[in-house]
Amino acid sequence: MQAIKTLNPSVQLVMDLDRNYFAIPVSIPHSQKLTNDKLKCLENNLGLMDIVTVANEAFQKFLQRFIDNRLENANTFVQYLPSLVSRYGYEEMPPLSKNASKKMRIGLIKTSEEDLLSLEKVLFEMRKAFDDKIEFIYFGKPHSVWEVQKLFEEYQVETHPTVSFLDYFEKLNSLQLDVVLLPAIESLFNRHQNHQLFIELSVFGIPVVASIHHPAKAFIKDGETGFIASVVPEWIENLSLLVDDVKTREYLSRTSLKYAWANHSYRSKNLESIIQSFI
């Protein structure tokens, strides 16, 4: 980065940071590769950037302070850019695939070990409340499968390892999920995560029940585009509505889909805010 700046000072350097690597949990395998030397290198590179883009407003404020306080000679501007969806990316997708079985398919996607464990008491109550009315589908990295099977030992969990980005949306569609749980513990890493998964699910009309600590909370209209839960009774109450009331499930499916396209697509207003960031 320094060489590029030296050879051509007029070049504008822009970096997109997808997560807070300075607060990544040790349970995530990727964290093992983040040595102190690599984190220091990332820190120095941030100081060489003209603009750093992030998809979370809290992360934007944190990172701007981080750079200003630790890198005296940096003139880096951290800009929040929202996650958006494009119709071009879905034109060749097959029609939305719906679950035709009698059991409701409940999904967990790309969930960390700590976030999964936060559902332990919820799962215990779900076994008592719903019994054989539901089935769980886990879509995530292979390292998480063992934790999933242990946590869901009373259920027969259907597991699907992560696929490439090119196949991701077709795979998500093929899972025929009725609802997805978004568990999250209170942590700096989670506060700085983006809400992209919520938008991806909304585009497929898949309702969510999200933890109060999940970043999607800021974009969910509770009871309209999804449910937000804090304590165990709230999780069970919200899930009961989705399991037992088809109309509620269909309503959330419609409203979340409409919300995603109305507020998180490449409309003129959203494009204008992005363009202004780079002018």
From TrEMBL:
Q: Which SUPFAM superfamilies match?
A: UDP-Glycosyltransferase/glycogen phosphorylase
Which top-rank group of organisms is this from? Answer: Bacteria
Name of the molecule in the record: Glycosyl transferase family 1 domain-containing protein
Native organism:
Nonlabens ulvanivorans (Persicivirga ulvanivorans)
